[in-house]
Amino acid sequence: MTAPATAQPDSSGPGGPFTGLREWLDRLQASGRLAVAKPGISLEFELAAAAKRMDGQAATFFPKPSGHPIPVISGLLSNRRWMAEALAVEETELLRHFQEAVASPLPWREQASGPVHEVVHRDVDLAKLLPLPVHNERDSGPYITAGLLIARNPRTGVQNVTIHRLQLNAKDRLGVLMLPRHTMEFYRMATDAAEDLPVTIVIGVDPATLLSSQAIVPLDFDELTIAGALHGKPLDVVRSLTNEIRVPANAEISIEGRILAGVMEPEGPFGEFPQYYGERADQQVIKVEVVTHRSRPIFHTIVGGVGEHLLLGGIPREATLLAILQRAFPGVRDVHLSRGGVCRYHLYVQFDKKQDGEAKNVIVAALGAHYDIKHVYVVDRDVNIHDPAEVEWAVATRFQGDRDLVIVNEAQGSKLDPSTRAGVGTKLGFDATVPLNARGMRFERIRVPGEADVDLDTLFERAASTSWRWHLEAD
Ligand code: MN
Q1: How far is residue 209's CA from residue 227's CA, in Å, rounded to a whole number?
Q2: Ligand 1 centroid distance, CA of 181 (Å)
Q3: CA 2/CA 122 separation, integer angstroms
Q4: How many angstroms separate the most distant Cα atoms in the chain?
């Protein structure tokens, strides 16, 4: 069944931010960063394996996965440089730019119809309609991992947008892991009134909308308005067919349904961002009413623990943490959630210390800023916090365990960190800054004058024509 739709081109201005997924795929392909697989690769493991092997090098495009007519893409934003490029800013401006968008959100603009509704399926069989992959060895089965779940506050009507992992439970039922986040708040409000919570899940959106879904903002802050600010123009939305939820008009696929009040079914295990399996437990269930999509849609999947997964959560967190810390400590210059710390648990802070002891205050503030943060490292401004080896060097040479370590026992942490007891564990802070009264050359970093300015191409003979032996024999 096909509904008429007005064409809305995914236009991106020259050099401007990418406002359409397909334009971003064009850019990736034109610059050699889109690997197109041979048709027919298996949805079970093979697709995830290939996507994971290409992580950080190229996004992947899989035509006819397991023979399904809808192609699958993965790894769209697998490093910081790509993210900055998609938003049309310098990499060093990424956090500030995102924070500005959060500070000046742009309301969306409603359209009568949009490409996402070009094809409508009311007879729902998710496994047939969509190419649902199985990623990890012990995953319970097929999952939707890149679905932006949109719900409305039952009291205020304000929308919330976030990604929850969605397990295929039956042909028209998805298990949803909500965790104590905004969707869960809305669900509680609905169930208190003995009602289901309507939701619409969209799959296949542009980079800015994807990133916006991960913003750390208060309840009743519609994340789609951040996407508008990042685009520099309001996001076009359309009303869902069976509920009041507005969805990006240019999304590839939408799934409309209701989170059923009081219904629980087993969900998990599933391979999560810390590179471990989230456990199997009873979780809420979405009854799907309608699936819509573009006439030739694309399905996006995020493989657990790859760059795309870690950075999508990491960049908005960094932006929020930087803003929070800078409010109290103007000397905080930059923050970084390291890849080894799964872009959640290890925070590096570059700090221009003006008072002795101040770095410890920064540590305490950072630990309080987000419960996921487990270990905080504060370093001086000469340390590049985007290079973990530099941070380790600062800890190795500027830190003493008896006076520079902060320990907070029995604090709330991430439930997905298997070393905690149901999320409760120990926080550590490492003050690896140089004491302000350090004398003379004691902490002076060695430096070879001119190192950075050496022009290697003119200085060294790159052609192998001259043997070193020749120089012994010459003149
Ligand atoms: Mn929210």
Answers
A1: 5
A2: 8
A3: 11
A4: 95
The answer to whether residues 234 and 8 touch, using CB atoms and an 8 Å cutoff, is no
The predicted-structure confidence for 8-47, as pLDDT tens digits, reads as follows 444 444 467 999 999 999 999 999 999 999 999 999 999 9
Residue 350 structure tokens: 């570059």
**Ligand 1 ion: Cβ-proximal residues, 5 Å cutoff:** 160, 182
Question: Ligand 1 centre and the CA of 216: distance in Å?
Answer: 7
pLDDT at 4: 40
- Cis omega before residue 142 (within 30°)? no
Give 379 Cα–ligand 1 centroid separation in angstroms.
32
Distance in angstroms (rounded) separating the CA atoms of residues 209 and 299? 16
140: closest CA among 263, 264, 53, 265? Answer: 265
Q: 455 CA to middle of ligand 1, Å?
A: 49
Low-confidence ranges of the chain (pLDDT < 70): 1-15, 462-465, 474-475
Ligand 1 centroid – CA 302 distance (Å): 20
C-alpha to C-alpha distance for 164 and 144, rounded to whole angstroms: 9
User: Tokens 């949009």 belong to which residue?
Assistant: 114
Separation between Cα atoms, residue 144 and residue 40, nearest integer Å: 19
Instruction: Report the separation in Å between the CA atom of 151 and the middle of ligand 1, taken as the mean of its atom positions.
Output: 10
Residue 189: count other Cβ atoms within 10 Å of its Cβ.
Answer: 15
Tell me the C-alpha to C-alpha distance, in Å, between residue 73 and each of 41, 150, 255, 295.
Answer: 12, 21, 18, 17
Ligand 1 centroid to 215 CA: how many Å?
Answer: 7
pLDDT in tens, 436-460: 999 889 999 999 999 999 998 888 8
213 CA from centroid of ligand 1 (Å): 8
